[in-house]
Amino acid sequence: MNVGHIKSKVKRRLTPREDDVKAPLSEAGPAANEAVHVDESDSTDSRIEKILLVTPESFKIFMDMFPSEDLDSQTAKNGFTDWQKFVGAMTDAGFVANHNSGSAVTFIRQSGGRIIFHKPHPVARLDRHVLLGYGKRLRKWFGLDRKSFQVAPRAGM
């Protein structure tokens, strides 16, 4: 048995493949429900914000996910959010829900990116703390916060 011989590994691919390189989310164009606003008050860097236009019911869910400092929200009062209403809010914000095996649900953002949330069981209701955790993950991966959402104007207005 030859113990002294060490085999070295040689990398043959010098440049990354096209599918290995991902474009930053900021380069993706706005989804159908995103309104692009230029903040005129900050003229030095002309910051561009993407505002997601959602229904009033979805807006309440997102405000519960990204609470203000006082935590005076509907979820804080009753403690739970229905899973189907959460999925509807995510869909309203430009995500497509794909049910995977088990309780995993992948939400794919139309403008790029994906995130997996697990459907609670046996009862399909999200606890306040789980909803806050989902909000933290959406902030981390997509840069969403309270200011990212607005109630869409009605069609007749």
Verbal overview:
This protein has 157 residues and is of the alpha+beta class. It has one domain. Helix content is 25%, strand content 24%. A three-stranded mixed beta sheet has the order 1-2-8. Strands 4-5-6 form a three-stranded antiparallel beta sheet, with helices on one face. β4 and β5 form a beta hairpin. The termini are far apart.
Strand percentage lies at 15-25%
Q: Give the SSE string.
A: EEHHEHEEEEHE
The profile of the biggest β sheet is: 3 strands, mixed
Mean pLDDT: 76
Shape field: elongated
The residue ranges in which pLDDT falls below 50 over 5 or more consecutive positions are 21-30, 36-48
Number of strands: 8
What assembly state would you assign to the polypeptide chains in this entry? single chain
Q: Look at the helices and sheets and give the structural class.
A: alpha+beta
Quickly count the domains.
1
Radius of gyration: 21 Å
First-last Cα distance:
83 Å
Put simply, the count of helices is 4
Helical content, roughly? 25-40%
Strand order of the largest sheet: 1-2-8
SSE topology:
Elements: E1 34-38, E2 48-54, H1 56-65, H2 74-78, E3 80-82, H3 83-92, E4 95-99, E5 104-109, E6 114-118, E7 125-127, H4 128-142, E8 149-151
Parallel strand pairs: 2-8
Antiparallel strand pairs: 1-2, 3-7, 4-5, 5-6
Helix pairs in contact: 1-3
